[in-house]
Each structure stands twice: as structure tokens, then as C-alpha cells.
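ERR on first pass: missing label on line 2. Operator R.T. fixed the label and resubmitted. Corrected input:
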Amino acid sequence: MIDFEIPEKIAGIRNVVETVAVNMMRPVSRYFDEHEHEIPWDYINFMHTATRAMGGSSMAASEGKKEGPRFGFQRLAVMVEMLSWGDAGIYLDTPGGMLGSAAVSATGTPEQKERFLARFRGEKPTFDAMCMTEPHCGSDTASIRTTAVLDKEKNEWVLNGEKIFVTAGHKALLDSEGFIVVWATIDPSAGRAGMRPFVVEAGTPGCQVTNMEYKMGIRASDTVTVVLQDCRIPFENILGSPEVITEKSSTSFKGAMATFDATRPIVAAQAIGLARATLELLKEMLAERGVTIRYGLPRQKLTSIEKDVIDMEIMLRSAWWLVLKAVWMMDNGKPNALESSMAKVRAGDVVNRITQKAVEIMGPLGYSREYLLEKWFRDAKISDIYEGTGQINRLVVARQLLGYRSSELR
Amino acid sequence: MYSFEPSDEQKLLIETARRFATDELRKAAHEAEEKKEFPLPLINKGWELGILHASIPEAYGGFGERSALTGALAAEEFAYGDLAGAFAIGTPSLFALPILLAGSEEQKKQHLPAVIAAEWKPYTAALVEPAFDFDPNDLKTTAKAEGSDYILTGEKTLVPFAAQAEMMIVFAKLENETKGFIVPKGAAGLQVQEEREKWMGLNALPFHRVKLDGVKVPASNLLPGDFAPVLDASRLAVAAMAVGVAKAAFEYSRDYAKERDVFGVKVAQKQAIAFMFAEMATEIEAIRLLAWEAAWAIDNKKEDASQKAYLALTGAIDMAMMVTDRAVQILGGHGYIRDHPVELWMRNGRGFATFTGLAMV
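pass 2 clean. output:
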């Protein structure tokens, strides 16, 4: 039965998160935008304490419950949308497991999940990160050069390589006892079949944060370079079952892709939150200046601003339902590779169109740092880039629609 | 609780409607358009699926209760087969739904059973006016009270089956509000232009200009209820049909592009084309969900249902144009030839900006 009503339990959490967004994020939005590389500990500590008090590891979507309807990813999407409505940069500093944990959840064994994810329930806020991109390759993930060589004598993996654009890498490795998930190849000649995910814990010798980026937006979130130099990790830190580890197959590459099926709608939800914030503020600013939007009129009778705002509303609303459908499918065990990429394509588009138009409409007020519109415009751009650019996601969508393998649609 | 899965009953309906659309409507579409006539037996066959009947309660001769959502699901499938066919089969709804939604108890009892009789009969409605800034909430056709009668004056366009219709609902402005009036065939001052109107698409259907030159109807012919739910029902139906047409155009051009050779590969293997498909499919799904949300809001009597229906249609107008245009583009020169259906879908696609009032669910 088709239903667009938010489940009661999620609505309750949404209200709580809204309070956090209003009181703990918005007031410091500008500060952390202008003080890049400072860490919003007040927000982080609050979120960690609150999450512990509620008895969960908050951002991790997996639920133990086996029967009845599952809401995990829907709840997560709603929370992320609201936090990002508060501040898209600060949201990325939320402790408790993000992309790295998603990879562990999607590809790890039960033992690994316990070993790596338990830390998020500890006393101190803890972070993780995912390391995929390298200086020479981004979307073309199968070309990574970071190597993992097995030292059979010591039963250890030796990692060598350089990873860039690691979101929250500083917090995962230096500000907490977290971990990073490093994608490396066990056979550089094998392409994607050689790719494997490895967990490197904070404090591991040979793993160094060498650079922090200065960015256009989401400045409250750290983006770092991680260099792995003869970095030794236990054999058991390769994610997945033993067969996956020894066989040269693309199973684990598919694991990476499965991770994306789960994470893309969440990144899309982040875009939607930011887009909603922008549209709400735009309407507010317009209303203060005597401009209201006359819904229901034919286009021919609308002013240009009204047309723009109504189009924004359509884009925002429809993109949000794409996101929710993708996570709803996730919760219901339906394959959602197509839907999750569609949601990401659409949300990445929409947030940029909305923030760009909003700045344009408000003119000098939009361009001014007195208001948050210009910041959100800058924050928005990343949504069409990370976790798969709009273009790579269009490829993923198109392959699904057309029934092509990547070799057939390059 | 969020769910994006139709009920089992709705799934069955979708399947039935899709089969009819694919096996019958789609196959008849080209000839109907070229011959400028939609075969009546096919209209009746669609009528027998009982979509409207299922919206009318037993008390008035039907066997169900109106669900805008179910109606929208069916409308998408019919339009996926052929838009002209979908409009033709649904034309009696243009008369029945305003009465169901805004009519008095007597009006419902008097008219609904006749409309949903066994055979399809051309009951219709006149909403659209020949003006670039036509606004259903600010009509130029007026109704004025005169004693115990109303006098209707104005001009309507795009009235389907007007020349044959037993009765029609005429929408007019009464004291700044849009209201529906039941106007019987042959009423004094009712001038239905004999010659059919000519449109860019929908040539299979007879549309007529209708002039109201002081048409007098008794007060009992006024539909007392609000116009808003009627307009919502139409905007939703048209939005759902836009999704259906877009889906047809998407699928046809996709299948073509997977067959067509170019530079040693299939044309669908070119990113320039493949990206178009990704965007078309994403847009179609986005607007479909928006239409579903509007339908759900109508069925659950949400306060902002009207706004949602408006947004759904406004989004659907752009989506249908974008998708049908690209379908023609993907077929290239072949898309421009009338042997392929995509050019018809593109002509129909532009029409969604104008079709409010031609369908209701």
C-alpha cells in the first residue's frame, strides 16, 4: 500500500534532530566555515552523549531486529537530511561511524563487524573514514595503485600508497581511536579483480596524515591525504571471508559497489537537507521583502521569481522521494543499485540548481557572507562530486537501464 | 509508514490496464491518429475495465469508492498505451467526477447511474478557454443568477465529444469562484461548433469549440461543492498521464538505441545517448513519485493536497516535454518520421501544459 506518511518513530527522532540542528549547528555554522580545520567538539560531544544515552551507535543503520518492518536506512536518511539542513559541514563531523563503517557492514565478517564497530559505543566519540581516491584516479576506482602484499611469515599485510580526499581522515586517525578503510590491490595487473578493502586502525605505524585540504565549502569537515608507507596490519584486517581474500575475483569490487548502494542515498539525503534549508531561507527572505509565492496559478501568470521557487519546490520534493524510495528498498531487502544512483544523480543536481538560483535571486544579499545562502552554495557543490560524481552515477544508472556491463558502456 | 509498493489489488489493476494498453491501445494509436478517428469498440473495451465504475459508490450504481491513487495508477498505464485512447475512455469521468466531488445528493442520484451504464456514452465537460492565460480559477466564462436560473456566457475550447454529448459540465465564474453547471444537449444558447477543432496532437479525438450565449440553466443544475477537489482530480490525472506517455517514449527510444549501429557500437553505448536515458528515467521516476504523493494527499484529505497536485502537474509538464523531445532526438531523422510513434508522443508531450480538464481520476 503506497504511503507517504512518515513513520511515527522516525518523526519523533526527526524532531529531536531538528532541535540539535537549530540549537547546536546553525548558531556555529558561520564560525566553523571561517575557522577551517577547527573541530566542533561541542556538537560532537553532544551527539556522542545523546547517542549513548539512546543506547545506539546512532548513524549506523544496521538493525539487529529480524522481524517486522525495518526502518534503519529510512531513519538514517531522515536524520541525515535534518542534520545537513542544520549544517552540511558540521554534519560530516558526526561521530559514530560513517562510510568506513558502511564498508565494514557491507563486506565484513560478523567477527570483523564486532571488532571494528564496537568502538563507536565507547566512552569517547570515535570516527572512521573511507580511502578510495588516489592522486591519479577518482571515479576510475579500478585503477588504484595502493598495494597490499602479504608477508606470509608474519601473517601481515604490508600497505603502500597514497590516498587523497579522505573525508574525516584526521578525526578517524588523529582525533580518536578510529579506523580507516583502505582500498588497495593485491594484484596490480588484475584491475578491479585485485581490489580489496583493508582496515587500518588509528596509531598503526606507517600510516600518516600528510596534508589537510582547504576547500570551497563543507569547511567544518576535514579532508586529508593519507600516506601508507610499509604500513603493516594484521592478516585479519582484510574485510570479507577467506574465499574472497584468496580468489582472484571481482567479488570484493562488487562489495565496494554494494557499499555505494547503501551510502549513495544517504549522501543524497545530505544534499536534500541542504537544498531544503536553502529554499526555506529563500522563501523567508523573499516574504520579508513582500514577495509571496502564488501557488496554483498557471505558469503564464507567474512572475519569474515565483516560477523559479515553484520549480525548486518540485525538484526538491521529487528528489526527496527518490531518496526515500531508495532507502525503503534497502530496508526491505530489494536490490536498489538503480534507485540509489538515481537518487544521487537527482539530489546532486537539485541541490546545486537550488543553491545557485537562490544566490542569483537574492542578488547582493545572496552573494553576501552576511547570510548563509552563499555558504550553502559552496557547501552544495560537493554533493555532485563525492560518493560518485553526477557523471559516474549517470553511467551507473544508464548501465542498469540499458543492461550493459561496464565494458559495454564505458 | 513509508511504502512505495501498490497494494495487491492495485497491482492487478496495473497489470490489466498495462496489458490492454500494450495489446490494444498502442496497436491502434497510429491508425487512429492518421484517420482522425478512435474506434468506438476499443473505447468500449477500455470502458469495460471499469475504472470509473470502481470510483462510484454502490448507491449511485458503481461498485467502489474513489481512490485518486488507484485512478492515477490506471491513468498512467492507459496513457502509456495511447493518450488519445486514454482521454477517450475517460471522457465520461469529466462529467461524473465533478458531480461525485462537488454535486448534491440529488445530482448524484440523478446522473451518476446513467453515466456508468454498460456502454460508454459521451458525457463530457468544458473547462478550457481559448486564451493564452487561461486560468481554471479565474475563468472568463461567467455565470449570473437570474431569478431561479443561472445565465452562462462565454467560450470554451478543447471540449471532447461535445457534438455528441448528452450532457456536459460547463465551468464558469460565479461571484469570483469557479463552479460547475450541468448543461444538457440542445440547451438554448448552447452553440457547439460542428467542425472539429484542429490540434497539434490528439487528432484521433473530436474536440469542439463551445459557445455559451446566455445559456439558461435552473439553479438545481449548479454543482454546489468546491471546485478545488475537481481541479486537483484533473491535475493529478493529467500528471499521471504525462508519466505514462514519457515512459512509452523512454522505452521505445531505449529499445531503438540498443539496436541501432553507429561507429561500430550500438548508439546506446555512447555516453551522450546513455546519459540522456539516465536523466530521462530519473526524471520520470521523480515525477511519478510526486504524482503518487499528490494522489495519496488527496485520498487522505491532507490540507496541502491542492498544492501537491499543482506541483505534480507543473513538474510533469516539463518532464514530459523533456523526455519526449529526447526520444525523438535519439531516433534522429527516423524519429521525425510518422512511422515511429515518438513524434506523436512529442506532439502530445507539449500538450500537457494545456490538457488540464481533459482527464480526471
